[in-house]
Write a structure and sequence with these properties.
mainly alpha
Length: 177
């Protein structure tokens, strides 16, 4: 007895044939490859932000006005500079991991580890950007207003980069049958 129903999934050995893949079908290796490519593309975008804030911070130290910064402002500067350089290192780590383990069979694990590393990098980048805002606003507006605005900026990063994805993931998981 033959069935008109398609097989449960395409034969991975015959993916080069012209038969279309069912929507949403991926074997674990294809899924891991796709997820890694997406993650590396996202990190490329983030690296630009890190480079911009890092370049700004490097330039600040060589301006004549830098000597006029208070000790507290110089401390903010140093902390922010270090956060930016560590964020750059952390956000580049998944790229190095991918290069170092290019043909490694555990690509799904590489993606999982790289995702966690990227989350730490986002936290460091948010901290560096908030610190840069704090430094500039402290010089321009004074400490009380600068701290208030920097706290709001930090909360915005937290809400958009961490709370929102968590809430969407939680709602999606809850809505599954």
């Amino acid at each position: 007895m033959t069935s008109d129903a398609p097989p449960p999934g395409p034969d991975p050995d015959h993916l080069g044939q012209s038969a279309p893949l069912p929507p949403g079908w991926e074997n674990p290796a294809v899924r891991a490859d796709r997820r890694l490519v997406e993650l590396l593309q996202e990190l490329r975008v983030l690296q630009t932000g890190v480079q911009i804030v890092f370049a700004f911070l490097l330039g600040v130290a060589f301006t004549p006005r830098f000597a006029e910064l208070s000790d507290a402002q110089q401390d903010i500067y140093i902390a922010t500079l270090l956060l930016a350089v560590i964020a750059a290192a952390v956000l580049a780590t998944p790229v190095a991991l991918h290069r170092g383990l290019f043909h490694h069979p555990g690509k799904a694990r590489i993606v999982d580890v790289s995702t966690r590393i990227a989350q730490v990098g986002l936290l460091l980048l948010a901290s560096a950007l908030t610190g840069a805002v704090l430094l500039v606003l402290d010089v321009v507006l004074g400490t009380p207003l600068a701290v208030t605005i920097a706290c709001v900026i930090g909360l915005i990063f937290t809400a958009l980069w961490f709370v929102l994805p968590w809430a969407v993931r939680r709602a999606t998981t809850r809505d599954r049958p």
